[in-house]
Amino acid sequence: MELAPFLADQQLDGGFAREFTTADGERVMVAALTRQQFADLAKTTRLVQTFAFLERVLHADFSATDDLYAYRGTIAALLVPWFARRTVAELTAALTGTSVPWARLPDLSGRSRSGR
Question: Is 67 strand, coil or helix?
């Protein structure tokens, strides 16, 4: 799912959206703005049980956009290592067929990607 048009149609007053760096040094933006998107993200990253445990400990409901937003830092901390271990090609394979909106971000530093 292409991220920019999706985000343009949403009210971003809740949910989860975060930039991650991949194993090949690329940057991607990932969002979970619905119950299904977060469920797909949790399943893809194999963190379903971890997030369920956190919901119990924090008395949170990650199917609610308000709680996704409130605990976005905690959620991101758990996802950072998963994204850091994968290349953009691996992310494409993993997220294809899910409802998770994501996009590769452009390099705005002026450096060539091949020069890294």
Answer: helix
Determine the 3-state secondary structure of 48 from DSSP.
helix
Residue 25 lies in a domain: yes
Q: Taking a C-beta distance cutoff of 8 angstroms, is the pair 100, 36 a contact?
A: no
Helix H or strand E encompassing 43: helix 35-44
pTM of the model: 0.82
* Gap between the Cα atoms of 55 and 105, Å rounded: 30
Nearest to 62 by CA among 96, 101, 34, 22: 34
Instruction: Tell me the per-residue pLDDT of 60-112, one tens digit each, with 9 for 90 and over.
Output: 999 999 999 999 999 999 999 999 999 999 999 999 999 999 999 987 765 55
Instruction: Show the domain range for 66.
Output: 17-102
Note whether residue 111 is domain-resident.
Answer: no
User: What is the tens place of the pLDDT at every residue in 24-41?
Assistant: 999 999 999 999 999 999
Tell me, yes or no, whether 4 lies in a domain: no
Q: What Å distances lie between residue 90 and 66, 72, 107, 109, CA to CA?
A: 30, 24, 19, 24
